[in-house]
# Entry
Amino acid sequence: MKKYFIVADVHSFYNEMIKALNERGFDGKNQDHIFVSLGDLLDRGPDPIKCLEFVNNLPKDRKILIRGNHEDLMEDALERGEFWSHDIHNGTDITCLKIASTMLDDKDISDIPNIELCSLVKRNELWNQYINSCVDYYELDNYVFVHGWIPVRNAKMSWDYPVYTEKWREGNWKRARWINGMDYWDKGIKIPDKTIYCGHYHCSWGNAYLHGDGKEFIKKIETMYIDPDTGNLEPHVNWEPFKDEGIVAMDACTAISGKVNCEVIEID
# Structure
């Protein structure tokens, strides 16, 4: 019996990921335990190196690594050789700094120009082993693993009027990684007889708007949804996976919720 332990949008929160895996019984030495990441492994959190070392140390046949939009953003920044405002907002610049620092024996790299910093990361073994192991999607029996959602037919990616196509495997995956999968699922973009596991968009959105359970996390959460007396999230924000027929959406927005969701699939 193979067990697939699925996480999404870890965003460099290594401890939270390990806690979630341990709670579901993941055993790194068990040949029947397969690790699945639905993308966005890095950025924002404190431990990108630990996350990279963890996935890279797993045997090739015991991991499935889906490429997320943050993997794309990282490669875009490395190719430019500079960080734009969204890279700083997302923590991509800090991720690159920490990866590059592993190559310089604790030398102070704060004064190294961005183009040289990016050049170091492009040559980094940890990064290259990881990114070269990533795939756009993965099919497993009646399951499909993606980051955002599957590509739709309309080439211009109309967010309001997506159209399902049986040729989704051949579609524009870079665009699809930005899709709110719960929204597109609600708009009828589903794969017949399959369940799509996705990340990218915080599952509180689907729980709130589609199931009427809790409230959606929004950017103003620090003033709207955190108890000013305790500093804790109010309980009406539901970070559990959004589940319905044909979909399991898993992004728990770890930077805010402090948790990583983990789902387990068992297959003979």
Q: What stands out?
A: Strands lie at 2-7, 33-37, 63-66, 134-135, 138-140, 143-145, 195-198, 242-244, 247-249, 262-267. Residues 218 and 224 are 9 Å apart (CA to CA). Confidence is low (pLDDT under 50) at residues 219-224. The first strand starts at residue 2 and ends at 7.
